[in-house]
Amino acid sequence: PAVFSNQVEIKGVYQVVKRIDVIDANGKLCLRVHKPDKIIDTQSLPPGVYFFRLSTESGKECVLRGVKSKH
Q: Looking at the whole model, is its pTM more than 0.85?
């Protein structure tokens, strides 16, 4: 998994992302960003494991895993 702190950079996505849902290890939706920029602000999230569900304009979904560090 990718390690991140106060922001996440979305790279390698070749379709237009319509929405990103950030879900914690317990399955709780912690953050939802509509029409995100390349950088997602994650300062409000406590350290832990998160899943990033990217939904594209074409209806496809991709889930990526990340770990927020304490720094």
A: yes
